[in-house]
Amino acid sequence: MTPDLIVLADTIHTLDDHPDNGSRPAIQAVAVRDGLIAAVGTREDAQQWRGPSTRVVDLGGATLTPGLVDCHIHPVFGLDLTIGCDLSGASTLAEVRALLQSESMNGAESTTGPESMTGPVPSDDGGWLRAWGLNPNAFGPVPLHRRVLDEVSGDRPAMIRLFDGHSALANSRALELAGISGRVEFDQSAEVVCDADGVPTGMLLEAAAIELVQRHIPKESFEDRKTRLGVLLRDFARSGLTGGHVMDHDEESTALLQALEADGELPLRLRSAPWCMPGTGVAEWKQLARTVGTGGRRWSVEAIKLFVDGTVDNGTAWLYEPDLYGQSTAPFWPRPEEYTAAVRYFASRGIPTATHAIGDAGVEHVLDALESLRGVVPSDVLRQTVHRIEHIETVPDQLVERFQHAGVVASMQPTHCTHYSVADHSDNWSTRLGKVRADRAWRCRDLREAGVTVGIGSDWPIAPYAPLPIIADAQLRRRSGHPEQEPIAPAQALTALQALEGYTSHAARAAGLWDVSGSITVGKRADFTAFERDPLTTAPDEFAASSVIGTFVDGEIQFMLERLA
Q1: Radius of gyration (Cα) for the chain, nearest Å?
Q2: Three-state SS for 408?
Q3: pLDDT category, 20, cuts 50, 70, 90?
Q4: CB 410 within 8 Å of CB 403
Q5: Using CA atoms, how far apart are residues 393 and 363, in angstroms rounded to an integer?
Q6: 3-state class of 194 per DSSP?
Q7: Cα 393 to Cα 408: distance, rounded to the nearest angstrom
Q8: Please, what's the b/e burial string for 449-467 (b: 16 or more CB within 10 A of its CB; e: otherwise)?
Q9: Phi and psi (nearest 5°) for 348?
Q10: Using CA atoms, how far apart are residues 220 and 205, in angstroms rounded to an integer?
Q11: Spacing of C-alpha 322 from chain mean position
């Protein structure tokens, strides 16, 4: 059969299961027909495949791999989290104040920060001062308090989203508009933080508390949000991504993706997972289950996302022992047995789950819940359904060993380590945990050595989405481009191959899609990423600074550098 497309490159890493013992010639050509890989071989083979209508794309000295897939992103949720002043680069309280003062003086002329790349934000924001990406390390020993916002906001309501996505800081005017004057009870482990006198400090922990203020902020129009999401997805493709596992989904997500596809093809594949939250029961779970399998041409709802704890940085993780401030001891589900019941509900119906679990006690509870499925869920259903734990920031040896036995996928974000912690443990995350638990930081290598599937992602907008620096950071255990930094738990560094697999073959396994994607193998989807430099042989710092040449989805070019287009 004559192929529609032939892609040539001096180096092609197939990442298939074929043993590389030197017996087969170097693969330098891939043929595509009807969106699937039709053949792999040499440049000489390609001469035999080519027909009169075949398009040939010769990438020359570039390297081609299976398409990169980010295993944890929040594109639609990120539209809200990246409005206003970008504080992610602020390292001191003075810098935070200066940026907020400038934003306040600019009034409504607000745009998203440079990393979000979602285009200008409409000015009809009701006069709110907004910011995002705040790292609590910038405050040092000073507690986060609404007075920092009050000093620069004047009479304007204001809210800052912290970098972790699980906490926010509101000013006095915002609290007043929301009618928040004291403590609030929630179905989930959320909190309106109050001082000793019961007066709100402005800190809001977890989604339910943040929503009390969020609902009073005017929302941009659907058309504006569609435009911003379209820009973001195109920038994802330019960064080298051909797919993403979206860890949230709702009715608005459906409408936005449908509208974008009506205007044209999405530039990458999106696999979404709506949230299952505390306070829900069988009726709500049934409704969520009905959404699984819905979707469009390049997006679909394929799993359910749950949370068993929050974050270390805001004191809402679930740890065996309290953190330095006596916090992080409670589960996100006040009755964790209800979380287990939810997991069983979905698993028994063959629906994959992905659970946010950061602390050691939280990870253990998820493993307990998943191990309890044996004997409850039919064995054939268990074999065919992939369950994942997201983040896994600090765990002891015995939990690492249980992952492989339970067949659970680890989904991890190397830049959470390299961007928000430091080797001397002086950062907020490490200080809260203490040395013993901080030394167990992001055990990517130990999980790989234990035979666990480890998918890699960014958690954008919690951290930047560009995959090349993330692949580099996974190997360096420090921020790429900063050789002066000491590596953090360097024994957990991944090899170049393991880091690339986290975005390709292991990403496919993490989604239960190894049969159709994740390697350059005949019969699989023709999704590819082309690099200027070889990710397996280039020094990580150099690779992080290099270019993506192009991306293909279904054998169609989604992005290509102008000199090659």
Answers
A1: 23
A2: coil
A3: low
A4: yes
A5: 9
A6: strand
A7: 16
A8: ebebbbbbbbbbbbbbbbb
A9: -65, -15
A10: 24
A11: 27
Measure the CA–CA gap between 536 and 240, rounded to whole angstroms: 16
Q: Are 243 and 70 in contact (CB under 8 A)?
A: yes
> What tokens does 458 get?
């960014």
Length of the chain: 565
- Exposure string over 196-235, b if 16+ CB within 10 A, otherwise e: eeeebbbbbbbbbbbebbbebbebbeeebbbbbbbbbbbb
Q: Which residues lie closer than 8 Å to 488 by C-beta, 6 or more apart? A: 417, 418, 421, 422, 423, 441, 442, 477, 478
Q: Which CATH number fits domain 222-552: 2.60.410.10, 3.20.20.140, 3.30.230.10, 3.40.50.300?
A: 3.20.20.140
Of 62-71, 107-116, 149-158, the one with minimum mean pLDDT is 107-116
The label of the residue with tokens 């941009």 reads 220
Q: How many CA within 13 A on the CB side of residue 484?
A: 0
Give 423's pLDDT tier (boundaries 50, 70, 90): very high
What is the C-alpha to C-alpha distance for residues 532 and 319, in angstroms, rounded to an integer?
43
Query: What pLDDT score does 142 carry?
Result: 79
pTM above threshold 0.85:
yes
Where are the alpha helices (H) located in 11-135, listed in sequence order? 43-49, 75-81, 93-106
CA dist 379 and 221 (Å) reads: 47
The amino acid occupying position 139 is F
Domain ranges of the chain: 83-117+126-214, 222-552
Q: Single out the residue of 525, 527, 2, 14 nearest to residue 268, CA to CA.
A: 527
Residues ≥6 apart with Cβ < 8 Å to 554: 35, 525, 526, 527
CATH of 83-117+126-214, one of 4.10.320.10, 3.10.310.70, 2.30.40.10, 2.60.40.10: 3.10.310.70
Mean pLDDT of the chain: 93
For residue 75, whether the previous peptide bond is cis, meaning omega lies within 30 degrees of 0, is no
Checking DSSP bridges between strand 167-170 and strand 158-162, what pairing results, if any?
antiparallel
Please name the helix (run of DSSP H) or strand (run of DSSP E) that holds residue 401, with its range, or none. Answer: helix 397-406
Sheet holding 55-58, edge to edge: 36-41, 29-33, 5-8, 55-58
d(CA 512, CA 385): 7
Token pair recorded at residue 103: 């934003």
Q: H/E/C letters for each residue in 151-192?
A: HHHCCCCEEEEECCCCEEEECHHHHHHCCCCCCCCCCCCCEE
Summary count for the chain: helices (H), strands (E): 21, 24
505-526 per-position pLDDT tens digit: 999 999 999 999 999 999 999 9
Are the beta carbons of 118 and 79 closer than 8 angstroms? yes
For 486, the token pair is 């000491």
Measured from the Cβ of residue 560, the count of other Cβ atoms closer than 10 Å reads 17
